[in-house]
Specification:
CATH architecture: Alpha-Beta Barrel
Order of helices and strands: HEEHEHEEEHEHEHHEHEHHEH
CATH class: Alpha Beta
Strand content: 15-25%
Shape: globular
Number of helices: 11
CATH superfamily: Aldolase class I
Distance between the termini: 37 Å
Radius of gyration: 20 Å
């Protein structure tokens, strides 16, 4: 049929009609809130989600999140001290290990996921031990696997490798299984790009590289076929779910991964994406809530089943 029999505006006339035929909906159950845990609580007045919490203050934060209906958190650690190998990542009394034990005792509702990487723990800020000026991929695998097991020991429900070392999923799966944690799922940052949108996060966890950059192991933002190869390898190695990071510059990648693979798919709505809208809203250029909801809807519409986002707490009140 053609105009005037077909009038697509008919179902847009009111909010109730638009809601009735809406194709994509946001559900708080699908969102994960990042938490930064450090030696002491240090608020961030400019970007509150990037403040650090001491371990002792985690139960109160967990109670607030549960009250709001948030279902899952992702933990990032800032250690007291750093070294060349990042040994604070797997220490039994490390900051994330203490955080997990505390939350496991105080919170029975939250799904506890952990970011598994070494960059926050190494003195040079790269994601593994160095061989000259390059990360030694194969040495890093043993340390990453050791870190994943230490997180499982401390009570993690899910481990999420974000380092982009070749073979890390297989190394972690083998180590977890050998340690008796065959039930712990691995959500792999399978397509993590060397992005310009990570700035506020690196400030929050003090993980900027001391030299160079991470383009030697994180992906070139120009590539999508390579992202599918990364996903395929991680699936073969035993990943239980895949994740694309960052989200908004890579909606096409999320869609391509969704169409190729049947695994649950996550997307990380990263710090720079959040901060841009916050800064624009502060200048009066954007309606923050409308822009945030539109952005998050786009990520889900592209194919993400779960979204890691700094808007999760605010989303709990908006929805």
């Amino acid at each position: 049929m053609s105009f005037p029999a077909t009038r697509l505006r008919r179902l847009r006339r009111s909010d109730r009609l638009r809601s009735l035929v809406r194709e994509t909906r946001l559900d708080l159950d699908d969102f994960v809130y990042p938490l930064f845990v450090g030696p002491r609580t240090e608020p961030n007045p400019d970007l509150p989600p990037f403040g650090r919490l001491a371990v002792k203050d985690l139960p109160a934060e967990a109670a607030e999140l549960e009250r709001l209906g948030v279902r899952a958190v992702m933990l990032f650690g800032i250690p007291d001290e750093k070294d060349e190998e990042g040994s604070g990542a797997w220490e039994e009394d490390g900051v994330i290990q203490r955080a997990l034990r505390t939350l496991r005792q105080s919170s029975g509702e939250l799904v506890l996921t952990t970011d598994v990487c070494l960059c926050e723990y190494t003195s040079h800020g790269h994601c593994g031990p160095l061989d000259g000026d390059d990360v030694d991929n194969d040495r890093a695998l043993e340390l990453l696997a050791r870190t994943a097991v230490s997180h499982a020991d401390a009570g993690a429900d899910v481990v999420c490798p974000s380092d982009m070392m070749d073979g890390r999923v297989a190394a972690m799966r083998g180590a977890l299984d050998d340690a008796g944690y065959s039930q712990i799922p691995i959500v792999s940052y399978a397509a993590k790009y060397a992005s310009a949108f990570y700035g506020p996060f690196r400030d929050a966890v003090d993980s900027a590289p001391a030299f160079g950059d991470r383009r030697g192991y994180q992906m070139d933002p120009a590539n999508v076929r390579e992202a599918l190869r990364e996903c395929e390898l991680d699936v073969r190695e035993g990943a239980d779910a895949l994740l694309v990071k960052p989200a908004l510059p890579n909606l096409d990648v999320i869609r391509a991964v969704r169409e190729r693979f049947d695994l649950p798919l996550g997307a990380y709505n990263v710090s720079g994406e959040y901060a841009m809208i916050k800064a624009s809203a502060a200048r009066g250029w954007l309606d923050e809530r409308a822009a945030a909801l539109e952005s998050l809807t786009a990520i889900v519409r592209a194919g993400a089943d779960l979204v890691v986002s700094y808007w999760t707490k605010e989303l709990a009140t908006w929805l």
